[in-house]
Amino acid sequence: MSGRLQHRVALITGAGSGIGLESSVLFAQEGAHILLCDINLQGAQKGADLISERYPQVKAIAIKCDVSKEEDIKNAVDTAVKEFGRLDVMFNNAGIMHPQDDNALNTEESIWDLTMQINLKGVWWGCKYAILAMRQNPTDVSKGLHTGGSIINTASFVALMGAATPQLAYTASKGGVLAMTRELAMVHAREGIRLNSLCPGPLKTPLLMDFLNTEEKRQRRMVHLPMGRFGEAIEQAKAALFLASDDSSYMTGTDFTVDGGLSSAYVTAT
Ligand code: NAD
């Protein structure tokens, strides 16, 4: 089998659902060995089992990892290197959208802190341990393997646009992901380590659909979506695959927006 990620090793957080799950399966289809990490081990294990069944030529391992804990992320990266010998792709994708996240007046400090801990600090730690591992990647020219790698951090369209339906902590955390990713991209550019942010638009995944739990809330957003629909997780996975592979070899520090045109919209078609 030849694929865009053949012989590569990818670690994906939030791999038990949505974007992370679809990306795990797609990256495996393209030849990568996958470490599926999630706080929900059952979800990650289901993904690993699916990959092993469909693509027996690659290895998939699921582990429990809470990205809000530094030791869990260090352990996840160590596991990838121990089991697969290297780390080529780090997809820092896990995130939460808390139902009590609101405006400046109503958001509790505990909700702010929890959101930052997972969505922003977790991404920092993911970058830190991935960079350390990628520097040690052995080169094997015959297999197209080299030192360095690709780090993809999931941000959001809300980091680029304001919304009068506030989720203050979530939005601030995702803005932090964009700024941090851009800066790290500059710091590590000459080491062959590329860092890019993925900015998804609103998607039909449990994260958003649990939050938009009434038709009224969904319609409040739908009118602003140029294509008249929410996005699918697989549409983000395909963009993540591009950022993970050498197809994007001259891209670093980008806010890669996959939002169905939302961030370009003023008035949408009826
Ligand atoms: P999802 O809810 O389908 O999947 C998120 C996964 O992350 C779940 O499996 C969950 O168990 C896991 N997770 C949560 N907290 C964790 C933690 N502390 N440690 C490890 N894993 C944890 O959501 P999704 O839509 O696939 O979201 C993935 C990413 O995309 C998130 O960062 C989210 O903020 C971002 N995003 C989503 C949307 C959207 O509309 N769904 C839009 C823009 C950005």
UniProtKB/TrEMBL annotation:
UniProt key word Oxidoreductase: yes
Pfam families on file: adh_short_C2 (PF13561)
Alphabetic keyword roster: Oxidoreductase
Entry's Gene Ontology molecular function annotations: oxidoreductase activity
InterPro entries: NAD(P)-bd_dom_sf, SDR_fam
NCBIfam families to which the protein is assigned, alphabetical: PRK07231.1 (NF005559)
Protein family according to the UniProt entry: Belongs to the short-chain dehydrogenases/reductases (SDR) family.
Cited PANTHER family: 3-OXOACYL-(ACYL-CARRIER-PROTEIN) REDUCTASE (AFU_ORTHOLOGUE AFUA_6G11210) (PTHR43180), DEHYDROGENASE_REDUCTASE FAMILY PROTEIN, PUTATIVE (AFU_ORTHOLOGUE AFUA_6G03520)-RELATED (PTHR43180:SF63)
The protein, known as: Short-chain dehydrogenase
Gene source species: Rhodocollybia butyracea
UniProt lineage: Eukaryota, Fungi, Dikarya, Basidiomycota, Agaricomycotina
